[in-house]
Amino acid sequence: MAMGNKKLLLVGDQTPTITRLVSAIKKAATAQEKSYTIVVTSYSHVDEQLRAVQPDIVLLTPQLAYLKAEMQRLTDEFGVPLAVIKLTDYTQLAGDHILLIAEQLLAT
To answer: How confident is the model at residue 3, as a pLDDT?
Structure first.
């Protein structure tokens, strides 16, 4: 099933791990012949990025899971689904699992 380009807003700290994670998600998307634009932002810039990027989904890194309730209010305001990446998927750079979570949220 071909989909148009989807925009994913990844909220986390700019670290080498998050850079590798973005690569893993893009690789998984390419393997599945799906198109994703992935924008990484810090928590302090989420509000402006929600306006600028207008993402289809927002994913929080496990380190920011404690901010989920606060983030949920923001994403609800924009009508965007939100999920926290599982720690195991994050540490194993499981782009395919993370993409599956995103796809499940987009389908609901």
So the answer is: 52
